Amino acid sequence: MYEDFYGFKELPFNVTPDPKFLYRSTGHKEALAYITYGVFQRKGFICLTGEVGVGKTTIINAFIDLFQPSLDVSFVYSTRFPFDQLLYLICEDFGLEVEGLNKAQMLSRLSRFLIEQYNKNRNTVLIIDEAHNLSPEVLEELRMLSNLETRSMKLLQIMLVGQPELEDILDLKEMRQLKQRIPGLYRISILNRNDVARYIDYRIKVAGRGNGVPRFTDGSIEEIYHYSHGIPRLINVLCDRALLVGYVSNTRNIDGTVIRESIRDLEKKPGMEDRRAGRKYNNY
Ligand SMILES: Nc1ncnc2c1ncn2[C@@H]1O[C@H](COP(=O)(O)OP(=O)(O)OP(=O)(O)O)[C@@H](O)[C@H]1O
Ligand SMILES: [Mg+2]
Question: Where does the chain have alpha helices with state H?
Answer without folding.
Answer: 3-6, 26-40, 56-67, 83-93, 103-119, 136-145, 165-170, 176-179, 193-207, 218-228, 232-248, 256-267
